[in-house]
Amino acid sequence: MVEPVAARQLKDRNLYRQRAEEARSEASEATLDNVRDRCLRAEAAWIAMADRAERAEKRRADDLEAKEAAKLSEATLAR
User: Fold this and answer.
1) What is the rounded CA–CA span in Å between residue 23 and residue 48?
2) pTM of the predicted protein model
3) Domain boundaries, the chain
4) Where in 1-79 does DSSP place strands (E)?
Protein backbone atom coordinates (compact mmCIF):
# COMPACT_ATOMS: atom_id res chain seq x y z
CA MET A 1 0.00 0.00 0.00
CA VAL A 2 1.28 3.46 -0.89
CA GLU A 3 1.40 5.99 1.94
CA PRO A 4 -0.38 9.31 1.52
CA VAL A 5 1.97 12.04 0.31
CA ALA A 6 1.71 14.14 3.48
CA ALA A 7 2.58 11.17 5.68
CA ARG A 8 5.57 10.32 3.50
CA GLN A 9 6.79 13.92 3.58
CA LEU A 10 6.52 14.11 7.34
CA LYS A 11 8.38 10.84 7.64
CA ASP A 12 11.07 12.10 5.23
CA ARG A 13 11.46 15.37 7.11
CA ASN A 14 11.78 13.53 10.42
CA LEU A 15 14.25 11.08 8.87
CA TYR A 16 16.39 13.99 7.62
CA ARG A 17 16.41 15.57 11.08
CA GLN A 18 17.31 12.23 12.65
CA ARG A 19 20.20 11.73 10.22
CA ALA A 20 21.44 15.27 10.98
CA GLU A 21 21.45 14.44 14.68
CA GLU A 22 23.37 11.23 14.01
CA ALA A 23 25.94 13.11 11.94
CA ARG A 24 26.31 15.72 14.72
CA SER A 25 26.85 12.95 17.24
CA GLU A 26 29.44 11.27 15.04
CA ALA A 27 31.22 14.61 14.62
CA SER A 28 31.43 15.10 18.37
CA GLU A 29 32.93 11.61 18.76
CA ALA A 30 35.38 11.93 15.87
CA THR A 31 39.06 12.12 16.74
CA LEU A 32 40.27 13.02 13.25
CA ASP A 33 39.67 16.50 11.88
CA ASN A 34 38.75 15.30 8.40
CA VAL A 35 36.19 12.86 9.80
CA ARG A 36 34.70 15.57 12.02
CA ASP A 37 34.52 17.94 9.05
CA ARG A 38 32.86 15.28 6.90
CA CYS A 39 30.27 14.61 9.60
CA LEU A 40 29.55 18.33 10.01
CA ARG A 41 29.11 18.69 6.24
CA ALA A 42 26.74 15.72 6.30
CA GLU A 43 24.79 17.31 9.15
CA ALA A 44 24.46 20.55 7.18
CA ALA A 45 23.26 18.63 4.12
CA TRP A 46 20.64 16.70 6.12
CA ILE A 47 19.39 19.91 7.72
CA ALA A 48 19.14 21.56 4.29
CA MET A 49 17.11 18.59 2.98
CA ALA A 50 14.77 18.79 5.98
CA ASP A 51 14.33 22.53 5.46
CA ARG A 52 13.56 22.02 1.76
CA ALA A 53 11.04 19.31 2.64
CA GLU A 54 9.33 21.67 5.09
CA ARG A 55 9.19 24.49 2.54
CA ALA A 56 7.78 22.14 -0.10
CA GLU A 57 5.18 20.87 2.37
CA LYS A 58 4.15 24.45 3.21
CA ARG A 59 3.97 25.39 -0.49
CA ARG A 60 1.75 22.39 -1.21
CA ALA A 61 -0.53 23.27 1.70
CA ASP A 62 -0.73 26.91 0.54
CA ASP A 63 -1.49 25.80 -3.04
CA LEU A 64 -4.21 23.46 -1.82
CA GLU A 65 -5.72 26.20 0.31
CA ALA A 66 -5.69 28.61 -2.64
CA LYS A 67 -7.36 26.03 -4.90
CA GLU A 68 -10.05 25.37 -2.31
CA ALA A 69 -10.64 29.11 -1.89
CA ALA A 70 -10.93 29.48 -5.67
CA LYS A 71 -13.46 26.62 -5.84
CA LEU A 72 -15.48 28.21 -3.05
CA SER A 73 -15.36 31.57 -4.83
CA GLU A 74 -16.49 29.99 -8.10
CA ALA A 75 -19.31 28.17 -6.36
CA THR A 76 -20.44 31.40 -4.72
CA LEU A 77 -20.39 33.27 -8.03
CA ALA A 78 -22.32 30.49 -9.76
CA ARG A 79 -25.26 30.96 -7.40
Assistant:
1) 13
2) 0.74
3) 5-78
4) none
Distance between CA 75 and CA 36 in Å, rounded? Answer: 58
Radius of gyration of the chain (CA): 20
Express each pLDDT in 3-35 by its tens digit.
665 666 668 899 999 999 999 999 999 999 999
Contact 11, 2 (CB under 8 A): no
pLDDT of 65 over the 80 cut: yes
pLDDT of residue 11: 81
Task: Look at residues 64, 44, 41, 54 and name the one whose alpha carbon lies nearest to residue 12.
Answer: 54
Q: What does the longest C-alpha to C-alpha distance in the chain come to? A: 71
What is the tally of helices (H) and strands (E) in the chain?
A: 2, 0
> Phi, psi at residue 43, to the nearest 5°?
-60, -45
